[in-house]
Amino acid sequence: MRGGCRLLTLLLLALLRGLCRGREPAPGAVTCGSVLKLLNTRHSVRLHSHEVKYGSGSGQQSVTGVEASDDANSYWRIRGKSDGSCQRGTLVKCGQAIRLTHVNTGKNLHTHHFPSPLSNNQEVSAFGDDGEGDDLDIWIVQCSGTYWEREDAVRFKHVGTEVFLSITGEQYGHPIRGQREVHGMPTANHHNYWKAMEGVFIKPSMDPAKHDEL
């Protein structure tokens, strides 16, 4: 309950900031500082994390896919690869390096050379504290145009290990029964397309340097 209240507060603050500055959520653009859910278009599950650690591999916080669209643990904040490199309200370009920070736990989407527990692909975890992790938290947004558009399916390629954020359908048992394994795959295919879904999308700013990050 506490985590859900914190998330609701963050989303309301983001919305109020945008409205006060004439920057209400607008369809079309995905911008730095936005908070969103990501849907895997092949398997119809949203990228998710929670305070459940892997029982093998790195032992870090697990990342999964869930079918529910209303789960508060599926929100991620878009940030730059370093502080100041993704000013709030700036359009995210195709080919740009970003971090995805899990809103409720403050950990970054991360991967490394550990096998994933079910498929033996590459483990994807959530890592760091209060949004600060390491160089293995950085992903490249791969899309076909100039900017990441909300209606487009995009891929996320990991900078450090060159795998794609993927789901192939394996399901966990207890204690996260029915949730899908998220992992890294070395090839681009239909298992690694993602689409921006629910969230607070900051309207593009003409002068993003004047605005702080969410």
From TrEMBL:
Alphabetical list of InterPro entries matching this protein: MIR_dom_sf, MIR_motif
Compartments (UniProt record): Secreted
Predominant subcellular localization, coarse grouping: secreted
The entry's keywords: Repeat, Signal
Top-level division of the source organism's lineage: Eukaryota
Domain MIR: 27-81, 89-144, 145-199
Pfam families, sorted: MIR
UniProt signal peptide: 1-22
Any one GO cellular component localisation term in the record: endoplasmic reticulum
Matches recorded under PANTHER family: STROMAL CELL-DERIVED FACTOR 2-LIKE PROTEIN, STROMAL CELL-DERIVED FACTOR 2-LIKE PROTEIN 1
Name this polypeptide is given: SDF2L protein
Organism: Phaetusa simplex
